[in-house]
Design a protein that fits this description.
mainly alpha; 78% helix
Length: 165
């Protein structure tokens, strides 16, 4: 569809003539086909339609706003309830963890006291063993005691018991 055969201009025809005008004239497109003119041609009717639809648009938009507010209020109420439940559960969990932490501290303190008492007892026993060892004289290992015993047994007049005699 070309501009020469059809008298009604189309968007493609306007673009073609505006582009040709920009290419042919160094100053830009002619004022009747410039970008500002096309914009005003398209926006002016849309503004008029928008103004004409105002009596219809306002009640519809107020109903939509009310519906959205109602839905959001219900969602906010649900979220608020859930948040309150979560806050209560969190507070209960904190209390339980504090109680457990206190009990653990008491247990550990008792355990430390027991370990200190055991260390003291071990130290006392070690000192007692040292005093006994010093008073008893030189210490002979068990291996030496066994070899001395074997020598004593073999040197004695030991005769095995015979069965049937």
């Amino acid at each position: 569809m070309s501009l020469a055969t059809d008298q009604s201009p189309t968007l493609q025809g306007l673009r073609a003539t505006a582009g040709d005008a920009c290419l042919t004239k160094p100053g830009g497109a002619p004022p009747s086909v410039s970008g500002r003119g096309i914009r005003s041609l398209t926006i002016a009717p849309l503004k008029a339609i928008w103004r004409l639809l105002k009596p219809i648009r306002q009640p519809v938009m107020s109903r939509v706003d009310q519906h959205i507010a109602t839905v959001l209020r219900a969602d906010l109420n649900v979220l608020s309830d859930q948040l309150n439940k979560f806050a209560v559960q969190t507070a209960q969990a904190q209390q339980q963890s504090l109680i457990a932490m206190r009990e653990t501290n008491i247990f550990i303190e008792g355990l430390v006291r027991e370990v200190a008492q055991l260390q003291e007892q071990v130290q006392t026993l070690s000192q007692a063993c040292t005093q006994l060892a010093v008073s008893a004289g030189p210490f002979t290992p068990w291996a030496d005691r066994d070899s001395d015993r074997q020598a004593t047994i073999s040197s004695s007049r030991f005769e095995p018991y015979e069965i049937g005699s």
